[in-house]
Amino acid sequence: MSNVDFRADGAAAIEWAARYLERVGDLPVLAQVKPGELSAKLPASAPEQPESFGDVLRDLDELILPALTNWQHPRFFAYFAVTGSEPGILAELLAATMNQVAILWRASPASTELELRTVDWVRQLLGLPDGWHGHIEDTASTSTLAALIAARHVTGRNVVVCSEHAHSSVEKDARMLGMELRKVPAGADLGMRLDGLDLSDAAAVVATVGTTSFASVDPVRELAERAHAAGAWLHVDAAYAGSSWICEEERWSQDGVELADSLVLNPHKWLLVPMDCSLLWTSRPEEFREAFSLTPEYLRSDDAAYALADYGPALGRRFRSLKLWAVLRCYGAEGLRAIVREHVRLADLFAGWVESDPDWELCAPQRFSLVVFRHNGSDAENEAIVERANASGEIFLSHTKLDGRYVLRLAIGNAGTGEADVRRAWEVLNREAAR
Ligand SMILES: Cc1ncc(COP(=O)(O)O)c(C=O)c1O
């Protein structure tokens, strides 16, 4: 028996969570610890005798909290900022409580059917085509891996084509599969260039809507048409920006997406669902099943007609749809739209400040909720600005390189981020630039 009073300790854990969310904005955004600092404080081996859950909560405050980089902080602007919203958090608790292992329909009718329904709700909200089959993977890395496996299975080819700005997961997936990766240069708008594109031996083309570095958009329609003419599979990576399609005005970036063979989108990035929740749709579910379906004797049953494990690498599947369901219901499409819209507005506002200040430069076309910019001066000076700003604990930004130059990225994606937070980021950056 564990040493837990489930009701009392559960109430204390919820209280801890509530207090954390209330005060996270007062904590440093970036963890203010050195590598190994936490490890040095953790016992080298597990306890022989049971401890109390109170001990765990105490150590959460004393050991773990100082070593957190606070992704729930409203001034987290690095990578792609995210939100683990309250309904999603509560649903995670309940999912762990029920601990469904959805290896086939019978093993969890609820998880299987709720997953299909909620993923289809999202498809409708984003204006994606009727009839697409969708399921949930852990991450976009896995979703793209699955898509490449399906593409290789269908085409019998071994080459993956993507833009030089595609996410590193495409390269890693190709490497894990022993597939050859061909990176195509991007044009002035940072989208993949089409001139000289040879897809004759391509298994898959990966088109990105909302690249990680610049939120740029590849010409999906042209890529889909060329891929299909060459007998290749078209996978769309809309892991970040696809969520913006919940707002009609962002659907300009959806042009051609209806031609995709598969598409990945992460509600754990910009739809308020706690990590992890990656949606993978395909217009070719039969080919996915051919690539992935494998039913050993011990899993055979009369009602095993439907198993979501037939569409991806994992057999055991978490009840991830519960948090997606809770978020969709407790915010409603209107609530989600309002948050995405506000993030885009805040990014535009910040980009406007950058553009109108001669000391700063906007470095990429403004898209979605990401601003790419730099201060006048050398790479080293820009790097020092980011490092000082991050070390202050007031904000957390990340960087990338564009044409070999160091550029800063301000990504807005936390539901708690308001205009005051964005203004504070601008003030901190200007303060550090003036040093
Ligand atoms: C465009 C894009 N694709 C894929 C990924 C990989 O996502 P994941 O961490 O879910 O594997 C990211 C991560 O930021 C991304 O921005």
Structural overview:
The structure is a single chain. With 435 residues, the chain is of the alpha/beta class. Helix content is 41%, strand content 13%. It is built from 13 helices and eleven strands. It has helices at residues 6-23, 37-41, 53-64, 86-98, 109-126, 140-155, 168-177, 220-229, 267-270, 285-292, 321-355, 379-391, 419-434, and strands at residues 133-137, 159-163, 180-184, 202-208, 233-237, 262-265, 278-282, 360-362, 370-375, 398-402, 405-411. Helix 6 crosses helix 10 and helix 12 (379-391) packs across helix 13. The radius of gyration is 23 Å and the shape is globular. The model has no long low-confidence stretch (mean pLDDT 97). Bound molecules: pyridoxal-5'-phosphate (PLP). Residues 80, 139-141, 167, 169, 208, 210-212, 237, 239-240, 266, 278 line the site of pyridoxal-5'-phosphate.
Describe the protein's topology:
Blueprint: H1 6-23, H2 37-41, H3 53-64, H4 86-98, H5 109-126, E1 133-137, H6 140-155, E2 159-163, H7 168-177, E3 180-184, E4 202-208, H8 220-229, E5 233-237, E6 262-265, H9 267-270, E7 278-282, H10 285-292, H11 321-355, E8 360-362, E9 370-375, H12 379-391, E10 398-402, E11 405-411, H13 419-434
Parallel strand pairs: 2-3, 2-4, 4-5, 5-6
Antiparallel strand pairs: 1-7, 6-7, 8-9, 9-11, 10-11
Helix pairs in contact: 4-11, 5-11, 6-7, 6-10, 11-13, 12-13
This protein binds pyridoxal-5'-phosphate.
Pyridoxal-5'-phosphate binds at residues 80, 139-141, 167, 169, 208, 210-212, 237, 239-240, 266, 278.
